[in-house]
């Protein structure tokens, strides 16, 4: 599959690995891919982020991702669903942090020391990359671009797509920004 990746798409993957290393994360996640996409310049995804105003909201995007990490990776939709049945996730997180310290429920952790510095991709990150291939093939494209990776991140349910949607980055909006009204 990686032979189909353009230079820009490969840069997203290597940027995601760099993001994981910077945060001492044991795995490369879809969150790291989003942050690598936000760091890219002169690409289709950078244009889409700019046209949707997401670049101007980067701090808010990062705060949304951090908030989800604090909730143990639970999306805001999951927290809202639990609230409907009387479970206050914020209260649970506060009690856990009170007992075990700030960030106790956080996803990630420190990287394990070993013989290799090779970072493994988390299952959700692998699925997002697989989804980018499906997005490209569905559009009739022979190569996978950074734009296809961005669309894949918006198409997969979870924290990354929730945070993007909260900032105007739904699948439809991103698709229009990347490829125009005709999609």
Automatic annotation (TrEMBL):
Could you tell me the superkingdom of the organism this chain comes from?
Bacteria
What are the coiled-coil residue ranges? none
Keywords assigned by UniProt, alphabetized: Repeat
Would the keyword Repeat turn up in this protein's UniProt record? yes
**Claim: Endoplasmic reticulum is one of the keywords in the record:** no
Tell me which InterPro entries the record gives. Answer: Clp_N_dom_sf, Clp_R_N
Q: Where is the Clp R domain?
A: 2-183
Family matches, as Pfam families? Clp_N (PF02861)
Q: Give the protein's recorded name.
A: Peptidase
């Amino acid at each position: 599959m990686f032979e189909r990746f353009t230079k820009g798409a490969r840069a997203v993957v290597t940027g995601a690995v760099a993001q994981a290393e910077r945060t001492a994360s044991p795995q490369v996640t879809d969150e790291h891919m989003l942050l690598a996409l936000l760091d890219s310049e002169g690409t289709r995804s950078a244009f889409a982020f700019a046209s949707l105003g997401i670049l101007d909201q980067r701090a808010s995007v990062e705060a949304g991702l951090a908030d989800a990490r604090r909730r143990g990776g639970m999306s805001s939709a999951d927290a809202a669903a639990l609230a409907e049945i009387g479970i206050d996730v914020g209260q649970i997180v506060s009690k856990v942090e009170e007992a075990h310290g700030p960030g106790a429920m956080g996803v990630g952790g420190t990287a394990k020391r070993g013989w290799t510095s090779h970072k493994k991709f988390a299952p959700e990150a692998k699925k997002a990359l697989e989804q980018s291939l499906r997005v490209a093939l569905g559009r009739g494209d022979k190569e996978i671009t950074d734009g296809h990776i961005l669309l894949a991140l918006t198409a997969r349910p979870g924290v990354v797509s929730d945070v993007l949607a909260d900032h105007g980055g739904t699948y439809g909006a991103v698709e229009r920004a990347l490829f125009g009204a005709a999609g």
